[in-house]
Amino acid sequence: MPRDPLIGLVGKPSAGKSSTLNSLTDASSKVGGFTTIDPQRAIGYLQIDCACARYGLSDRCKPNYGSCVNGRRSVPIELLDVAGLVPGAHQGKGLGNKFLDDLRHADALIHVVDVSGTTDAEGKNTRGYDPSVDIAWLRSEIVAWIKGNLMEKWGSIKRRHVAVKATAVETLQNQFSGYGSTSAVVARTLDKLGLKEPLEEWSEETIDRVVNAFTDEKFPTVIALNKIDHPDADKNIAKIAKMQDPNNIVLCSAISEIFLRKLAKQGYIRYTEGSEFVDTREDLIAEGDPDGGGLKELDEKNRARIENLRDMVLYRFGSTGVVQVLSKAAEILGLVPVFPVRNTTTFGSGSGDSKAVFRDCVLVKKNSTVADVARKIMGDAPIAYVEGPGGIRIAEDQIVSVGKNDILSFKVGK
Ligand SMILES: Nc1nc2c(ncn2[C@@H]2O[C@H](COP(=O)(O)OP(=O)(O)OP(=O)(O)O)[C@@H](O)[C@H]2O)c(=O)[nH]1
């Protein structure tokens, strides 16, 4: 059965992994008993456009897990904190191989980079460190680890490859299945490279290229430039933006998000998670609400901190960025939210609160078919047919995508 997507957070010590994880997991939308699964795994909330908005049913949308406010739905997604990576990890430094073993299970990575330059490669306090270096060494650790595992056995891999007349995809998939790879991932990797020589004649340079391309396919990575609230961040952001694909970069400030959510929870401010909108009691009074929205009065210190955060983060960058970090990871993975329903006219689930709609939502990878989704949700139950909105039959080989074949009802046969 296809398993749920898993996103790993990586980065050197003190880059802000735990803070980012906390800012993503402590959503006020937390319902259904989700907390940290173990010290390393947690549930974050991915924001998506919910199907309820398409049908004007937002007031009756009641997710079983997560929440939905005016058609913006928070869907739970599993996150993994992969701590302890330092240069030399593939040779066992730091938590080394333990770190790399944890990484195997991730479908995409968020590399949290301390863009303030106030921590060195090992996470020790400093000033003026160049964080662009971290992006290169972290990736090269992953590549070196995969390559090392492959080269250790390359002689026998080659001999077996020739003896059983395997294809390159078969032989490599044998080696890469431990990283959660599939034949499709390996095939895409090799297609992109268009190699001419047979596997048994690959030079070390060719193997390097194969491992690099495989790393790109298997571990697509979002670069989260964290600590943008720090005054030294600007020049480092500019430098990294020139070196990396801007499409994979998100700017964020994890402590700002944690601070705003905390004050909102305590009733001092009104804050829409992940947005640029923060209102204090004073703001609301100035806007004509004599009661100040029922908010508590901020003390001088927190008022100054909010002002500073508006200037340094919210007005300049549009938000604290952490919600966008997760959305970007979902985007590079191509996750599609699918809404299984019992009834394709009312969109109800046919149990419990009978007026509630779109109670369930699952995230599947791009290019999944209706049959893939059926297996994920219904397991081995025999499916007689599948219906979309309005009771229209949908063929099992259809691809699901946002807005198309993403509301499904599985009718079980006898
Ligand atoms: N200025 C600033 N500091 C931050 C931000 N996020 C985290 N920090 C600080 O950076 C330090 C390290 O943060 P952590 O979240 O513990 O970092 P980590 O990557 O989990 O570190 P390890 O647990 O050692 O791997 C803490 O002192 C945080 O308060 C941020 O957005 N801005």
TrEMBL record:
It holds the Pfam family YGR210-like_G4. InterPro entries: Beta-grasp_dom_sf, G_OBG, GTP-bd, P-loop_NTPase, YGR210-like_G4. Residues 5-272 form the OBG-type G domain. Gene3D superfamilies: 1.10.8.470, 3.10.20.30, P-loop containing nucleotide triphosphate hydrolases. The keyword Magnesium does not apply. GO terms for cellular component: cytoplasm. The keyword GTP-binding applies. Coiled coil: none annotated. It comes from the Eukaryota. GO terms for molecular function: ATP hydrolysis activity; GTP binding. This is OBG-type G domain-containing protein. It comes from Thermothelomyces thermophilus (strain ATCC 42464 / BCRC 31852 / DSM 1799) (Sporotrichum thermophile). The lineage of its organism: Eukaryota, Fungi, Dikarya, Ascomycota, Pezizomycotina.
